[in-house]
Amino acid sequence: MNENDLLILNFEEVRRRSIKVWKAIPTEMLNWKPDDRAFTCGEMIRHVIEGEFLYHQILIQRGSAALSDIPNPYETKEFSSVEEDLAFAKPYREEFLRFVRGLSKSDLESVRIDRSDVGYVRTLGDMLLRIAYHESVHTGQLLDYMRTMGVERPNIWD
């Protein structure tokens, strides 16, 4: 396996496990949140899906400045269901994975992504790992939400 294969495997495994969690949340609980300052379950799912699109734009343009120049297809679309959001996100997800597949080892090591607006500049390889980590953290939060709601949690360690 080369670097790209490992990155793709990681992205696919993280998403597969996220989807297991997302689909295990009862529809009537998608608007649940632990307190007034937290995301609802649905908002967190949307945040992850939209975040991947936004991160992709940051990677393409090599920095956060990209976010001021692009239309965000998620801004006007309300979250309605896990299945609908996944279907809506599918072409963006495929485009993101194509981008990752097309990277060279040199790109991963030498391309710098400027996120100094939020306190860091990192290599492209580092940023890709951060994107997967972001989704993983939110999946863990949703598992905690489910525990608090008293909802059965899926086994993501298969």
Features:
single chain, 158 residues, mainly alpha, Four Helix Bundle (Hemerythrin (Met), subunit A), two-stranded antiparallel ribbon, DinB/YfiT-like, DinB-like domain-containing protein, DinB-like
Short recap of the structure:
It comes from Brevibacillus formosus. This protein has 158 residues and is mostly helical. It is 60% helix and 5% strand.
What is the count of DSSP helices, taking H or I runs of 4+ residues? 5
List how many beta strands DSSP finds: 2
Beta-strand content estimate? 5-15%
Alpha carbon gyration radius: 16 Å
In sequence order, what are the helices and strands, one letter per element? HHHHEEH
The side-by-side strand order for the widest beta sheet comes to: 1-2
CATH class: Mainly Alpha
CATH overall fold name = Four Helix Bundle (Hemerythrin (Met), subunit A)
User: What does the main sheet amount to?
Assistant: 2 strands, antiparallel
Uncertain segments: none
The CA-CA distance between the termini, in Å, is: 22 Å
Total number of domains:
1
Per CATH, the architecture is Up-down Bundle
Q: Give the overall form.
A: globular
Derived from helix and strand composition plus strand pairing, the structural class reads: mainly alpha
Instruction: Bin the helical content.
Output: 55-70%
| CATH homologous superfamily assignment | dinb family like domain
